[in-house]
Amino acid sequence: MIAEIKTNMGSMKLKLFDDKAPITVKNFKKYAETGFYDEIIFHRVIKGFMAQGGGFTKDGLQKDTFEPIKNEAKNGLSNKRGTIAMARTNAINSATSQFFINTVDNAFLNYQNDQNYGYAVFGEMIEGFDVLDKIELVKTGNRGYFQDWPVTDVIIEKVIIEE
């Protein structure tokens, strides 16, 4: 299964690992196919780390989500450059719509043990590394209580799932 994330800076294509992260891929696909990701933004971008999106409008409003899913971080996939993983709160099984794309290898985000559970990788980029690199370099600042918010909107125009 392939996901194309179309942004105002270009498109990125990712191979989704529905064999290793079936719950997470099904969840991401549901958000994509319902249009949830249309016209939202990457709201957190940290150079040398990752770009996070999937939850906020350009106006800074957080969208209502479906129920949280089970964390599949024990799937053996690594948070390396170009992989997509689910964002979550400190609660292990709290991921909903937000995801991040690793801009570098972030092994410390992998499952270590049940006390250091990690973040579930569910796909890997196959095209668009130049777009990811452009996103990583956007100027960021503070917006309300958020840090690392892009000064110029990085818009997710649409996420398309190809079977």
Please provide a written account of the structure.
There is one protein chain. With 163 residues, the chain is mostly beta strands. It has a single domain, classed as Cyclophilin-like (Cyclophilin). It contains 2 helices and 10 strands. The strands form 2 sheets. Strands 1-2-7-5-6-4-3-10 form an 8-stranded antiparallel barrel. It has a two-stranded antiparallel ribbon with strand order 8-9. The longest helix has 12 residues, at 22-33. The chain is globular. It starts with a strand and ends with a strand.
| Number of individual domains | 1
Judging by the overall fold, what is the CATH architecture? Answer: Beta Barrel
Helix segment count? 2
User: What is the topology, as strand order, of the major beta sheet?
Assistant: 1-2-7-5-6-4-3-10
Relative helix content: 10-25%
* CATH class (first level) name: Mainly Beta
Strand content is: 35-45%
Spatial separation of the terminal alpha carbons:
5 Å
CATH superfamily membership: Cyclophilin-like
Question: What name does the CATH topology carry?
Answer: Cyclophilin
Given as residue ranges, the uncertain stretches (5+ residues, pLDDT < 50) are none
Largest sheet properties:
8 strands, antiparallel, barrel
Query: How does the overall form come out from the CA principal axes?
Result: globular
Mean pLDDT: 97
Secondary structure class reads mainly beta
Radius of gyration: 14 Å
* H-E string: EEHEEEEEHEEE
